[in-house]
Amino acid sequence: MNIPQEVARRRTFAIISHPDAGKTTLTEKLLLFAGAIQIAGSVKSRKASRHASSDWMEIEKQRGISVASSVMQMEYRDCVINLLDTPGHQDFSEDTYRVLTAVDAALMVIDAANGVEPQTIRLLQVCRARNTPIITFVNKFDREVREPLDLLAEIEQHIGMDAVPFSWPVGMGRTFRGVFDIRNDRMRVFRPGQDRLGTDDDEFVQGLDNPVLTERFDSEFAKAHDEIELLSEAAVPFDQQAFLDARQTPVFFGSAVNNFGVQEVLDTLVERAPTPGPRQAQEREVRPEEPKFTGVVFKVQANMDPAHRDRVAFVRVSSGHFQRGMRLTVSRTGKEIRPNNVVSFLSQRRDLLDDAYAGDVIGIPNHGVLHLGDVLTEGEKLQFTGLPFFAPELFQAVEVADPLRTKQLRTGLTQLGEEGAIQVFRPAVGSTLLLGAVGQLQFEVVAHRLKTEYGVEARLLHSRYTMARWLSAEDPKELKRFIDGNLANIAYDVVDAVAFLATSSAQLRVAQELYPKVQFHALREHG
Ligand code: GDP
Predict the structure, then answer these.
(1) What is the pTM of this model?
(2) Which has the higher per-residue pLDDT, 289 or 233?
(3) Do both 284 and 412 map to the same domain?
(4) Residues 422 and 393: beta-carbon distance below 8 Å
(5) What is the per-residue pLDDT across 11-40, written as a single tens digit (0 to 9) for each?
(6) Mutate to test the pocket of ligand 1, among 257, 262, 265 (most ligand atoms within 8 A of CB)
(7) CATH number of the domain bearing residue 491
(8) Pick from 272, 305, 336: which residue ends a domain?
(9) Which atom of ligand 1 lies nearest, measured to the CA of 17?
(10) Nearest CA to ligand 1 atom 11
């Protein structure tokens, strides 16, 4: 097998968006264009059933399905594309953030009526911290939406990069005429799409100054023409390196539900998005073309059958060539595993996987041998840096209804904490454990799993904390002084990292001012 060649044709990305911007629709259309599904609607119906139920136990039942839809692999124009799902609103949790550590690029979808919305901003922050290149798709131009120039300015402001339009909308809503492909100097004429791929009925008109365009599309085209001219003078030209360095984002306009403007996005992904890059481990840099296999667990998902504590560890391949049945070593424990029933995600079917290369994701079913952040190798001891734990924003105290089951509660919470389902804090004072999450659903999932998997009826109680910061200081004496002086607000997480819990941002600010030599971290990196 030619590893460098296989790496070069991999593209691994995630879609980031606010709920309802059109992520599911776009995902489906990308799969459709890549020929991975014949009829759009399969992703949609799954989502509908998931969201129709507010009872999250339904979600539990659906987990088998959501494992399969967490990663979608498709082939398009000689490339293997891995699309990693970032769970949306209802399931929002730390998992969502961590998925972004496993991709090489992100596709940001924006609802043209609403602009850049809060959840997109949260996800953007993670991308920005990692310098992930971003392609932008502005959706729903078949509706009355905001002015494209305004949207472009808003994107630039939030994303902190230059936004370089690759296409430009001609009209909108009822007078949506199409998009002008600036780089290829041609207009794609709008035609409401169907669920299947049109054969070759796409219509193009060449040339910005083509009189046919002015005749046919009149004032809409005149306006777009002026805007494109304005942009050609004012906007910075596209620069591939600036895109890869996350200093520029190519921007597309379209309507996902109408199959319109989607192909351009897919083509750009293949032509411009980065191939899997090197990964930094504590010991050394790992390059994707290296012959030996390495990979990192970025997500652990409990599977359907609680009786078996069955889990799927999602491993992003960092280097080498994975083959079914090969022996792998878990760096943390030195244990050897030999995964035979590895799951791949080609075309959304849970096929058994035979080969995988850097950028691919494999799912390894296991019974708790694999933890979040674990590194798998062919024997070398490695620890990758950069798997983030985010400071929780929601807190609850946890008590056990039956004191005789306190031990089970602790065991359960330790394991769920290691799995990354929730963060568990042990306060320096008192014995009540605290749970921290970034999404409310995490608490419900944990309470349910404590009951079904560990036989513990947990009571979740109000907690006055609203923020947590991990602490460090160059001088250990300073850190000790801080801890001693703030004992009531000190807690330790599952790996015994010390954190300061605050009830308000004002309290945090005061602490920071009083102890300038102590550093407060909103993010802890694994390892
Ligand atoms: P998600 O929550 O981001 O996954 O969003 P969905 O893909 O489920 O889309 C939310 C709603 O917007 C659905 O009712 C879609 O049919 C609709 N939608 C998606 N794309 C478009 C579009 O291009 N135009 C219009 N008018 N509606 C769209």
Answers:
(1) 0.83
(2) 289
(3) no
(4) no
(5) 999 999 988 899 988 988 888 888 766 554
(6) 257
(7) 3.30.70.3280
(8) 272
(9) 3
(10) 20
